[in-house]
Amino acid sequence: MAKPMIRDLARRGRRTGDEPAGRRSRGRQVACGLALCGLAWFASPGVASGAASPPASGRSPAAGLNLAIGAVKAAGYTPADTSGYDPGRSLSVIIGILTGSADGHPQQAFLFHDGRYVGVDAGVASASTSWVWSTNDTVALQYQLYRPDDPMCCPTGGATTVRFEWLGGRVVTADPLPSADWNAPLSRR
């Protein structure tokens, strides 16, 4: 099922003749990234998920990290923190910043099970997300909290930690995820 979708993305991403030779269109880059990582799609509601890539066994740790970075880049994000990624853990994370961002916002946490991409932390990216700690099956992320009148540079609402767990073959949140609504009393924006 993944291959027809990837082929379709690649077909739509073919050069039109209007772009310089040797330069791939965004659709082609995404399709290549998805094919490399074994992903069929990226979704966004809740703890969004994609079709998992093949098992990481037999890969070197560096190869596993490179494939995980490829998944982040294929989603249009630039890896900012890979210290929470460990392909040997049931659940690990890479924090990405939207590629091309001038101010480091928005950020998204990309979750991996045994080195395979399984989804993101939230359907809507956050202003500031950081990895705090991990156990074998739990990842703790910290979100800076903004009051409605706070500028993007200076959140005054403190921070909250949200745990994500690998449970029953999927990622679940163990703590409430703060709102992304800018008008909420405390928001992760």
From TrEMBL:
The keyword Signal applies. It comes from Pseudofrankia inefficax (strain DSM 45817 / CECT 9037 / DDB 130130 / EuI1c) (Frankia inefficax). The keyword Membrane applies. This is LppP/LprE family lipoprotein. Keywords: Cell membrane, Lipoprotein, Membrane, Palmitate, Signal. Pfam families: Lipoprotein_21. Residues 1-25 are annotated as: Disordered. Residues 1-22 have a biased composition (Basic and acidic residues). It comes from the Bacteria.
